[in-house]
Write a structure and sequence with these properties.
Strand content: 15-25%
Number of strands: 9
Length: about 170
């Protein structure tokens, strides 16, 4: 079947319009400008703010730590690589007073999380992402996942998968 010139012109024009609309949608969706820095989850972007409860039921916002470097880790107690890196996160928490460690638990029951933390004597700030919104906002596709956020709230490091204590130090010292 051979298309006539008129039909071919309509198909090409429709395709160009579709691509143009698709491009514009991508330009205007999922972007928020704050202080001329895009909000997002890539290095160089402003970290998305959030407010969720810690394990003690107190609301905690990322913006509470503006002016402080933040080590933000997403994890779950059922995740073997997460369990493997938790002692290193505790060590980082103890050894660096100028870094705030925030460990966001990805959707587990509060009692299970508390039991796990107490059994292992972990004392870093642990947040409960009970509805998964923060995990979604940070586009977490696998855990553990870690972000280092500078004093201005900009993501300066990003790592998917488990990391060693040495790698944690490299991430915060760079």
């Amino acid at each position: 079947m051979i298309l006539s010139r008129k039909k071919m012109l309509i198909v090409i024009t429709s395709l160009i319009i579709f691509v143009g609309i698709w491009t514009l949608m991508g330009t205007f969706t999922n972007k928020t400008v704050h202080s001329e820095t895009e909000v997002g989850v890539e290095v160089g972007m402003k970290a998305p703010d959030f407010t969720i409860n810690n394990v003690n039921g107190k609301e905690v916002s990322l913006s509470d730590y503006q002016g402080t470097k933040v080590f933000l880790n997403f994890w779950a107690s059922w995740c073997p690589p997460c369990r493997e890196e938790m002692p290193s996160i505790q060590k980082l928490h103890k050894n660096y007073d100028n870094i705030k460690v925030l460990a966001v638990n990805a959707g587990e029951n509060k009692d299970k999380v508390l039991n796990y933390l107490m059994e292992n004597n972990f004392s870093f700030t642990t947040l409960l992402d009970e509805n998964g919104k923060v995990t979604t906002d940070y586009l977490i596709r696998g855990i553990p996942s870690t972000f280092v956020i500078d004093k201005e709230g900009i993501i300066v490091r990003k790592q998917r998968g488990a990391i060693t204590y040495g790698k944690m130090e490299q991430m915060i010292d760079q």
